[in-house]
Write the structure tokens for this entry.
Amino acid sequence: MTAPTPIIQNIKGKDYEVVASRVARFRHDHPERAILTECIHNGEDRVVYKATICDDNHLPIAVGHAEEYRNAGMINKTSATENCETSAIGRALGILGYDVCNSIASADEVERAISQQNSGPFSSSAPAPHAPPPSAPPPADQGGGAARGQRNAARPANVPDDCEHIKLRKYYDNTTSKGQAYLKCFADVNGEDMDVVCWEDALLQQVRDACPGELVGKGEFDTFRGKRRFKLTEIVDNSEQPPVKEEMFNDSDIPF
């Protein structure tokens, strides 16, 4: 059986091998060895996991830990436990040497670390007793213009009314059950955190080249599995769109 090809994600100019790729290569090399996970803490605010890699005699040869906060981003609000377990496995495999990019941290860990740095420290403390309740999220737009005024509130003034301002953080290549290639991106659309998906063949490479970075595009909003998303159908050549912010990043910036 052919060895799996490593899957690499580029984050701020630095490459990281995703956890699924590390697991696939480890399973190919050592199908009889075990990857054990243990939940160290699972509370209202945070989750801590431990992952242990065993040798052929079921003795531990590598251990990795991970910690996730439930209020750290949209994904952790519903999947902090899953994220934490995956990160612990990725770190254990990285310690064992399963990372072609020579970095123990996983791509998912680095992405979350950068997001936390950019947004500043977060707190799990309760809001002040007299603080007003948070405003409700904008209603899902099924491709029409009913919610356009709300979703354009954070859009730069130079972006046309029929376009959206999109900040791409990272992308994943995917294939539908019918074999059609598409991209799923973690992004902000007019300041709102949501997934951006693209099925248009002519746009796939343009989106890859623009990530991470900013673009102006057209498409429609919908709701998928209870989460609002944006389906990109056209990239607009807008010479006045905000310049892409160049950032330097290295391992010393990772806060763990």
In short: The chain has two domains: 8-119, 148-235. The domain at 148-235 is CATH 2.40.50.140 (OB fold (Dihydrolipoamide Acetyltransferase, E2P)). The helical segments are 19-29, 74-96, 107-119, 148-151, 201-210. The radius of gyration is 20 Å.
